[in-house]
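Checklist before submission:
- one chain only
- standard amino acids only
- sequence pasted in full

Submission:
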Amino acid sequence: MNPNLFAFSVVAILSVLSALGVVFFKNAVRSALSLVATFALLSVLYLTLDAQLLAWTQLVVYAGAIMVLFLFVIMVLNLSKQPALIERRDPKLMLATLLGFGFAGIIGVQVVTPLLPPSEIVKDPVLAPNGFGQPQAIGMALFTDYGYPFEAISVLLLVGIVGSILLAKRRLR
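Returned file contents:
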């Protein structure tokens, strides 16, 4: 086995385990810290795929800024008290469980299919172009081909910020 593939597999397994910790921990703080570990491990996965900009963005934006916000909300809401479990069966829970298993099956097929031996139809694998995932390539694509959508998203975020400030100001009155 290739050492790079081995390292990728170990980090991928650890990231899946930490993602499962997000779901199965009953304590909200432990779940949030497991999410931090998942974000950090995903950053390492991006580094193994030669996408340095995505790795550092994942680490700074998600593991840094977003998780600070999540932990702040958890501390403000004081989620240390566990709510009582609902006694009766909710039909939405069964539907959510079925959809969850369905999505897990779809993702499983997407993960297992590339690991199978290549068939006769696919003879040449598609390789990423040179510089894929590098800051220079992403910057060129972002500000040339996707300049207008980038500006539209920035205006949309600005409108959302102004709207939330106006709503919070109205509540205070």
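Reviewer check: Helices lie at 3-24, 28-48, 52-77, 91-112, 135-145, 147-172.
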